[in-house]
Amino acid sequence: MTPEETGKAYDTITHLWTRPEFNQKNGVNAYKKALSFLPDIPRQKSNAVASEAIKKAYALDIGCGCTNRFVSLIESAGLIYEGIDVSKDMLAIASSQLPSHTFYWADVCTFTLPRRYSLISAWDSLWHIPLTQQVPLLIKLVEHLTDEGILLFSCGGTEGRGQHTNTVMGPKIYYASLGLHRYLQVLMDANCFVRHVEFDQHPELHTIVIVQKSAVQEQAEQAHNGNNASE
Q1: Strand (E) or helix (H) holding 3
Q2: Is 0.85 surpassed by the pTM of this model?
Q3: CATH H-level superfamily of 3-39+50-230
Q4: Predicted confidence (pLDDT) per residue in 100-144, tens digit
């Protein structure tokens, strides 16, 4: 399935997330854990002049859906929230509740990310990305993290790579996993430090991964490149 087809499938099941019995706490502890690894972010001051001097920090929520349940938590950490999803109807619900916030209706694999983010999250959404696009996407996301920025995602913690579809939620939905070791290897090769890995629903394979982009190696590489340029 393509991301576009996945988006259309989710358009038909928005009711699963808007029903009263939906667990609004799902994923909240993972976000709290991820945010705890962020370096201190300067808060905006009431003085307009002083506020302009403070660099804004952003968060991107991939596959944000319609509940907006992570928004207040992210904003309480001093970040400006942005959401992206391939489901037009999911975003219509989300933006109707938060009309002043930024939401992107797009496939994150092909979407040009507008900035670097202190937090990028993909809660229960990365596994819908086509298997062949997952490595390029992970590298792209790391490249768009600020120094010491955090990447949080959930995945299928399988031993090896695989993909399948099922109709558990109604329409046919695609799922894929690189395998837990491959996810971690890709991220470590991309200059990230593994902060947290958890099988939070054991014995199910639902897995939380939190990594932090290292600033030390990047600064060393910049210094090395600068020295070479001056020789």
Answers
A1: helix 3-11
A2: yes
A3: Vaccinia Virus protein VP39 (3.40.50.150)
A4: 999 999 999 999 999 999 999 999 999 999 999 999 999 999 999
